[in-house]
Specification:
The protein is mainly alpha-helical. The protein has 21 helices and 5 strands. The structure holds iron/sulfur cluster (2 copies).
């Protein structure tokens, strides 16, 4: 209980300071940079003053047209932005991109470096225990420090927009593109070890005896919902050619305690409450990254987790796997690598060392016939 209160306290404290920072940031920008309209009005005032001084009454007619000109000029000012800034602003999702595209890219490269590191750590029992540290670092750095901006989900959407011919900064697609080979060689360690969105849900989860949506049927329905939402997301991107998800992203609300619309708040509370009783509900029901990275497990020689001949059907791994990638019925124990987040819990808990990493091949099986073991 004390642990939960402590986590909630840290959560609230960092959120409030983030919110305060946001207000200070906005005020500083306002004070430092007068808007173009303000600049134009100021120059008009100076012009008017000069004309009054010179008593050039004949030019009054020109003043009457100033308002009209002013609105025309406002439009012109829109085009006055330097080319570089214009490029940066296209499909810009958050203020962190103001820091410059090279710093943004450097930040992404660090994240990818730690993802590869996690891919190595999960293979060694002694290093596997550091997963919680990776997850906390993900929450603190990518979540609270960066205010969940940029978000990996924007990266996959940007990639899609780029494919359909939108003018997108290629740097914003690097995050997701690099996760494809990393997942191929190390498994979905991004989800299990680094992602701040997944980590937040994981820490909120309270493993109680009351299990909600735990049955195989419910899990299947959640997977179907995720696929449907993915199709809707693609259709929305095709139709609007803009990233609208950002406006309702519950994680932006979670890490900034700020939203511009009611839907975002509703989704945030839904995510918050469901995460208490369902392990990673957003990952299971919504996230397009988890879905697409899961498909990589189908590619030949991809890194997968599997049970071997030493399995004694004791069901310890079934209980260890909170994401329900390992399921069993009377006949089979199945390991669904599309759902596996490479957390390594099953590898640690299995005392027979019957679970290990493999390269996906035709002879490798995700299914163990329990009757043959007895
Ligand atoms: S499924 Fe999505 S939200 Fe969940 S851990 Fe993976 S990338 Fe993050
Ligand atoms: S099968 Fe489950 S417990 Fe094992 S590594 Fe994958 S997600 Fe973790």
């Amino acid at each position: 209980m004390r642990k939960i209160i402590f986590i909630l306290f840290v959560f609230l404290f960092v959120n409030i300071s983030n919110f305060a920072n946001e207000i200070i940031y906005q005020d500083t920008i306002k004070q430092a940079k007068p808007t173009k309209k303000e600049q134009f009005e100021k120059s008009n005032l100076e012009k008017n003053k000069k004309l009054n001084d010179d008593e050039e009454f004949d030019e009054f007619e020109e003043f009457e047209n100033l308002d009209e000109k002013s609105s025309q000029n406002d439009d012109e000012f829109e085009n006055l932005e330097p080319e570089e800034n214009k490029e940066l602003n296209s499909n810009k999702q958050c203020k962190n991109m103001d820091e410059g595209i090279s710093d943004y890219l450097l930040w992404i490269l660090w994240i990818l470096f730690f993802t590869v590191m996690a891919g190595v750590f999960v293979r060694f029992e002694i290093l596997r225990n550091t997963r919680a540290i990776f997850l906390i670092a993900g929450i603190l750095l990518m979540g609270f420090y960066r205010g969940a901006c940029p978000c990996p989900i924007s990266s996959i959407q940007n990639l899609f927009l780029w494919i359909i011919g939108e003018d997108i900064n290629w740097q914003t697609t690097v995050w997701f593109l690099a996760l494809i080979p990393i997942t191929y060689f190390f498994g979905k360690v991004w989800c299990g070890w680094i992602c701040h969105l997944g980590a937040l849900q994981e820490f909120l989860f309270l493993p109680t005896k009351v299990k909600i949506l735990h049955s195989e049927k419910s899990q299947k329905i959640m997977r179907i919902i995720r696929k449907i939402l993915f199709v809707i997301l693609i259709i929305q991107l095709l139709m609007t050619r803009t990233i609208l998800f950002d406006k309702i992203d519950p994680f932006k609300v979670a890490f900034n305690l700020f939203a511009t619309n009611t839907t975002a708040w509703i989704l945030f509370f839904l995510m918050l409450i469901s995460s208490l009783f369902i392990y990673r509900p957003f990952c299971k029901t919504v996230c397009p990254i988890g879905l697409v990275l899961g498909w990589i497990a189908k590619i030949p020689f991809a890194s997968v987790i599997g049970q071997n001949g030493d399995c004694r059907a004791c069901s310890i791994c079934n209980n260890a796997c909170k994401i329900r990638a390992i399921t069993r019925d009377d006949k089979f124990s199945k390991l669904d690598n599309q759902e596996c987040i490479a957390c390594g819990e099953c590898l640690t808990d299995c005392k027979k060392n019957a679970i290990s990493f493999y390269k996906k091949t035709k002879i490798h099986s995700d299914k163990i016939d329990l009757k043959k073991l007895n």
